[in-house]
Design goal:
single chain, mainly alpha
């Protein structure tokens, strides 16, 4: 049959592409590492260390929430100003 060589080349190309592609797990592992934080084993951590980590995470979360709220209100204010100007002149 004609085209057998073509299909063999296509299959070989697909196999080579599969070998070169990184898996989703490898991509996830590479993005979850954080060089700034030290590793703390929860089994051997003291209650003071756990309380400190919990406090730090809560403060970071509050800071992120403040930034989100500020950004949301500023975007909303800009949209309202633009609508008011357009409504006045149109």
């Amino acid at each position: 049959m004609a085209g057998e060589g073509f299909m063999m080349n296509a299959n070989t190309s697909l196999k080579n592409n599969r070998r070169n592609k990184t898996s989703r797990l490898e991509k996830f592992v590479n993005t979850t590492s954080n060089e700034n934080s030290e590793f703390v084993d929860s089994k051997s951590a003291t209650p003071e260390q756990l309380a400190e980590i919990r406090q730090r995470l809560q403060e970071e979360h509050k800071a992120i929430q403040r930034k989100k709220i500020t950004l949301t209100f500023s975007i909303l204010a800009v949209i309202l100003i633009i609508l008011a100007v357009l409504n006045h002149y149109l």
